[in-house]
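From: lab user (bench 3)
To: helpdesk
Subject: output format question, protein + manganese (II) ion

Hello, I'm new to running complex predictions and I'm not sure whether the block I got back is the full result or only part of it. Here's what I submitted:
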Amino acid sequence: MKQYEFWFVVGSQFLYGPEVLETVEVRAREMAAELSKVLPYPLVYKVTAKTNKEITDVVKEANYRDECAGIVTWCHTFSPSKMWINGLAALQKPWLHFATQYNKEIPNDEIDMDFMNLNQAAHGDREHGFIGARLRMPRKVIAGYWQDEKVHKRLSDWMKAAVGVAVSKQMKVMRFGDNMREVAVTEGDKVEVQTKLGWQVNTWAVGDLVKEMNAVTDEEVDALYKEYLASYDLNTDNTPAIRYQAKEEIAMKKMLDREGCRAFTNTFQDLYGMEQLPGLASQHLMAQGYGYGGEGDWKVSAMTAILKAMGEGGNGSSGFMEDYTYHLVEGQEYSLGAHMLEVCPSLAADKPRIETHHLGIGMNEKDPARLVFEGKAGRGIVVSLIDMGGRLRLIVQDIEAVKPIMPMPNLPVARVMWRALPDLTTGVECWITAGGAHHTVLSYDVTAEQMRDWARMMDIEFVHIGADTTPEKLEEELLVKDLVWKLK
Ligand code: MN
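Helpdesk reply: Thanks, we reran it on our side. This is the complete output you should expect:
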């Protein structure tokens, strides 16, 4: 994971004289240093800006520097906003307006006009907010005391979403073969996606992968086989199947890394020259942070890599998922999610076990090895990016995952069970109304608010289905958004 940082830009003006400006700078440096200790990425103090040029200069540098994942602005004092126009108009990085204050309390005895002139964020941040609104700029506003833990959590979440933007802009997806034939929702406009989200999506022949697999040595396979055994329990004596998956993983990883791709797709319909659909191989690549989409679904693959990068430690608990089947017993309605093989072990409640089973679908000559496990209980989201024709729509639904309520001993794949919000059937109605795909990214550590931030920074449509959503409200929302996005 690349080391990203954020830049702290503090607004002021010359009117206050050098003493006040010096105090502002000292405090801003202190705040950046203290916040850097508790935030997932460093917040680097850059400038106390007093002129149009200072602001334009720092924005130009922020745009240019790859390690800068966004700017955080704050006005300790009043900062007349006309001098921000040129800089903000040029800004190409995510922007957070942090409406905070150095002091927590109004000091009863100490407060006089000097204190008021130095500590006037309530005043300065409103002027700053106006110009953001006037320029119609996408930005996040977080208000609160800078040492408050709740504020730290919100700043952290936004930083991770902004890192998701940086990762998106560098995203390269390697497709082995095309999409599954005749499927609609996995299609999309790759030119639009590159323009909007930065993704480079290209195809390589399965034959290229087979050639790469044939060049993998026994020693390389031995090493990865050992790693599998160290990470997972063994529940099969079919060693050749596991070694074959290792060979697939090594070959795919070499090709991905050579091209700088952090996401990939394949399809069971196009495995020509391969004995097994990659199962364990894809799962272990996902565990390392690579995105994956089945049936050629490159949108879900790239989104998987982005959500992983937005998660804890830069490789969080997010994975490719597919809605399979429902349990519709009243009072215990659940979705059962899985895939034919490829579920990311970062979703597992316990140590996954390696198994081999027959896979009827596709062109498998041999039984593919895969990891089997149950998903964790806990709150999460499912995410689907769909192409509406002329624009992209990001749909996010809140879910509550449970320990699967039955053992399902004959189900040969990893499985996750959850209840969609507001309740399963209403949630399904809303999801279907919005056009959400059967493929999703399921995440335990990325929130709907982070995805809203990401969609805003990416300038794409965002639809959230949560506890308060009703089909009626959603229909109205979609109707309005359809009009708005045609005008945009
Ligand atoms: Mn699928």
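A quick orientation on your result: The chain has a mean pLDDT of 96. Let us know if anything else is unclear.
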